[in-house]
Fold:
Amino acid sequence: MKVRTGLTWAAIILLTVLPLWFAAAPPAEPGSAAPAAFSGADAHAQQAIGTIAPNYKPWFAPLFEPPSGEIASLLFALQAALGAGVIGFWLGMSVARERERKHAPERDANAD
Amino acid sequence: MHIMEGFLPPAHALGWAAVSIPFLAWGLRSMARGLQAHPERRMLLGVASAFAFLLSALKLPSVTGSCSHPTGVGLGALLFGPAAMVPVGFVVLLFQALLLAHGGVTTLGANVFSMAVVGPFVSYGVFRALAALGLSRSVAVFMAACLGDLATYLTTSAQLAWAFPDPVGGFSASFSKFAGIFALTQLPIAVSEGLLTVLVVNAMARFNAHELRLLPVMALAKGKAA
Structure:
């Protein structure tokens, strides 16, 4: 169980990190500049719409836009922190509860 | 999978909203009823929601050289049924649409449909099918979360292709273009989401075994704990 958990974590990390080395920037759409490496797929789809339907005009603008990339990353980090906080609370509580239930000298309770 | 604000023609935007609203209402009812009958599930529902919040904020690099994010709604669908994840996905998408200019209010219906309806229902269906086949819980959870994630992105591709058919090749040419952007990027990310979901379910099986056994869906998979 422990080995498998470790291997699973390693696989997740590799799946995330390896593309940074081995993936090339996506090819340019005809008629537009090559997109920056590791930009969002959503933005690429937006570009594709531009080539399929060059006359389409978005008919609604976002009500509020983060004034800068920094603010956007602040809000994304806030979203992730909320999620991670709740999960951490549950894990910590669970570990403590298990320990108490067993009244045993602590075994390593790092199952995540 | 966020279709940007204003990037669906009004008829499509309204249509997808009309499709998603009944699912949202059903989800809210099923969630309220579930919590009333089983208040002890609040903690796990919170964890499942938090998982969706966390994962959908993480934009991960992928083999295509662009970034995309997992959805995190598969976990909750396996625990509480697919309908319960509709409100959770809705809240995540609303937060991103209003504060992050990521997705949009006009495209909320379409985005809710792909991430909070199709994803959870595919996850749930895959899990039930694999559990019925007698596969181990870890395999079934992995496949369910992974395929649900991919299904969300294929749905987005279909939604965009429907709204913007290729002038020459029509829907299918357009679909393969959008799927090339979304689904290909999503492949390794969906695998990661599947693995992470297995880890969380394993942790729940260890710490919340009692609650987990009482969940209708999880009871299907005979616990060959990983």
